[in-house]
From TrEMBL:
The gene is cdoA. SUPFAM superfamilies: RmlC-like cupins. InterPro entries: CDO_1 (IPR010300), RmlC-like_jellyroll (IPR014710), RmlC_Cupin_sf (IPR011051). This is Cysteine dioxygenase. It is an enzyme of class 1 (oxidoreductase).
Amino acid sequence: MNSSHSDLQIAGDILEVQHLLQPAREHPATVAEFAGLARSIAADRSQWAHLVQYDAVSRWYHRLRTVPQALGSARAGEAPIGYEVWLLSWVPGQGSGAHDHGASSGILTVLDGELTEHTERGVRSLAAGSQRVFAPGYAHDVVNDSLEPAVSLHVYYPGLTDMPMHPAQSPPATQDAVPA
Ligand SMILES: [Fe+2]
């Protein structure tokens, strides 16, 4: 017998057993669903390509979506958790500076071009289609080291309220705080 064969069979009409079907969720609620949201936006260029601008003087960014109250809080009495989706562009040489994301988790998805992520663990090249999922407190410095502009999509949950720069490695303090 084929080892991948499943013994599960559904007799009759699956639509007759509504309790077996998960209702479609309006908003993502798990890491996998947030990553899926980012991939679905990435795959649909009509949602973002016409919005992208490149600015050689200061970092360009655009908030694509903000949902203040998407999920119930894990703890009674706490406010529901929302999420934000940001679109960022990077001309060659532009970088974020070393930073973390406060209490937010995040998903970075490269839409166009190539970015380089520096962390204390090393250097990682992120080509278009790459995704990085990170937990609260994760620190990195993202740079466009290539010769072509790059575009990235950033999902933060909860929405980004604080993005502490890490002064030891970051550029001068005149740099604007830009989500990254
Ligand atoms: Fe970041």
